[in-house]
């Protein structure tokens, strides 16, 4: 028996420090910072405090979710944490969270490693689990990229924010029904976004920390993302105009704008929230979805679109079925 | 439609250096080393060379698998790498492997983080994928724990080996049919096995590297593993004597012996191969399964049992259905 899978609710948490993209912070002229902030559409970002780790953000988001829903921890059959910035390599953040919040021992507990496609890929893993097992599951998307960013590299520093989002999935009909979820990969683009000197490989000849080929990723996204969206729509006999909203991963406002333009989407179909969040990696889509959920009406179709490190990209298609 | 899932074949690769548990290596008296090696049943272990990383072992194991099977890379719909010692935190080892070996872009590519339960947990993820999608998938279990082990800590150094195993899963009937797969977690035991100072948390007051509470893990395994085995058998109306083999994670010979004794398993039901491999983390079960596959007859039941870091534990029940 295959169950349908729904998203019920989302809890969120932000890094404890607000970092502004201004002259005092970035060490450039005010005019230069203004130009940069305007182009990327990011004026400030939440950043983890020095003693705040991914597990802390993951825990806060999960506690927020549990507080605002009626789901007891005992009913959670799967607890996934998607992160690329764990506290430790061994064990995973999900183990820590499992112990801290007292989830049951027969819970499926796992860390998955994925970046800006991590909401879509995580959705695939948890939905595949629930389709067969039924019940409730939580996917936490949480990262603290700021700890891997070279402070002098403004092309990445001005972009990324630290945050977490905990999404409650269930086979009980409510909220957003998962209609489709598909992801793609092109590992030949591994070097387009790498945290050098992280984990175990010794990278010589390059500075340690996150190295990003921004133009390469923009070019890849403009080629691959519209293709994946079209494939998904075609599979369901849908047109872009029938989508209530397309929730792009909030890489930055410039990139989202380019994608929207290329697809000829109406401005009101493409909500954005990166101005004071930045690019929060795999948490960005659920942070945006949480803001949008209250405004949805029964039958509204929402598409979530992730793309980035790996390279990887993917699409999730959702339909709002009401909240009762 | 839910597909049945089968394990067809396994490719393997070992770290390029052989490290012996002898006086010259461990810096203890020969008598002391002999006593230790005899107790844990581990006399030598493959260790990754300084320039050999998890992705290198993962690639070698996957190439071995592809060479010995008839599965073309284009037919692989899922590529999972289970590791706790990736080359980089960002991106995952699976991305690198995907690019190096030219898997297709519509492949589901993901790193999962799990230790000695990683064969069982990985099996759950890939089986859930194949049950709905059908087709072929590869799960690679690969680690280089030696790079995180403190050389002076003989309680861990004498145990762990570096290796990789790539397992071909398919919905085509052949090899071992997956009858059941279940995993458990107790995150309150997070601290029983931690790689301190790995990834992003600053751990003060303790040396960096792998810290293991050996007696605590033995005690946990002796309590929880038999319980999980019994639950699984009961669910299928089976008795222990009906199992052709129980493939325990090769933590060490002492621990496997204790588990076998507690369960009153016959010696011939409990194959071991850690003497010259050591504890190869999540690769240990597929390394052992590969050795056993040729000796199986149609109808033979095999149980794979993982346990360790997290804490976590799990059971996979397989039935050999023949090779034609």
Automatic annotation (TrEMBL), chains A, B:
Extract the GO molecular function terms from the UniProt entry. Answer: 3-oxoacyl-[acyl-carrier-protein] synthase activity
Task: Give one GO biological process term.
Answer: fatty acid biosynthetic process
Q: Does the keyword Transferase apply?
A: yes
- UniProt keyword Acyltransferase, yes or no: yes
- What InterPro entries does the database record attribute to this sequence? ACP_syn_III_C, ACP_syn_III_N, Thiolase-like
Boundaries of every Beta-ketoacyl-[acyl-carrier-protein] synthase III N-terminal domain copy: 110-187
Matching PANTHER family, A to Z?
3-OXOACYL-[ACYL-CARRIER-PROTEIN] SYNTHASE 3, BETA-KETOACYL-[ACYL-CARRIER-PROTEIN] SYNTHASE III
Q: What is this protein called?
A: 3-oxoacyl-ACP synthase
The organism named in the record is Rhodanobacter lindaniclasticus
